[in-house]
Amino acid sequence: MSRLDSFIHRVQAQRDILNHVRDLGLPHANGLILEIGLGNGRTYDHLRENFPGCRILAFDRALGAHPASTPAPGDLVLGEIRDTIGQAAGAGAAFVHADIGTAYPEVDADTITWLPQAVADALAPGGIAASGLPLAHEALAPLPLPDGIRPGRYHLYRRR
Ligand code: SAM
Predict the structure, then answer these.
(1) For 3-159, CATH number?
(2) In terms of domain of life, where is this protein from (predicted)?
(3) Could you give the CA distance from residue 157 to residue 143 in angstroms, rounded to a whole number?
């Protein structure tokens, strides 16, 4: 599969997963959503559109989002996520979306040493996580993917 095909499949899977989580409904938590990896802000914008009324707190090492998809300063945390995500521990988030996978296996291998615990710590019981990288953690129970998404392309969990 070409990298272009792979990119198209990834963004289609993202949209389908975010829509699926919207349709599942978020738990009666505080309505907080964490966007881990703001990037250009495309999925942030989709979250904003599909989860009206929720606060979206975004993380990235630097601001690279389109101005139309840039969170307010109080909703954007800049820096290495490994160092900054601790501030979301105990936040009781309803939904965490993490899109910080790379094309570099050694980078991703390092990321999955700390990301699963950080996501488990941030979510409310019953909260949902969607991630491009697997989140192996005893507190995160895998959920079925919506139709059409190849297993392994994206990962969906509910906090026990
Ligand atoms: N979902 C975004 C969108 O739709 O525009 C794209 C996210 S992009 C694939 C990943 C982003 O995560 C990049 O902007 C990168 O800077 C950030 N990122 C990845 N790993 C990170 C880390 N360990 N700490 C801080 N930022 C990180």
Answers:
(1) 3.40.50.150
(2) Bacteria
(3) 5
Backbone φ and ψ for 74, nearest 5 degrees, come out as -75, -10
For residue 146, the Cα-to-chain-centroid distance in whole angstroms is: 16
Give the contacts of 156 (CB within 8 A, at least 6 positions apart).
Answer: 17, 20, 21, 128, 129, 130, 142, 143, 144, 145
Cα(59) to ligand 1 centroid in Å equals 8
Which pLDDT tens digit goes with each residue over 91-142?
Answer: 999 999 999 999 899 999 999 999 999 999 999 999 999 999 999 999 999 9
- The gap between the terminal CA atoms of the chain, to the nearest Å, is 36
Region of 92 please: left (phi>0), alpha (psi -120 to 50) or beta.
left
Domain boundaries, the chain: 3-159
* Residues whose beta carbon lies within 6 Å of some atom of ligand 1: 37, 39-43, 60-61, 64, 80-82, 99-100
Q: Per residue, what are the HEC states of 39-94? A: CCCHHHHHHHHHCCCCEEEEEECCCCCCHHHCCCHHHEEECCHHHHHHHHCCCCEE
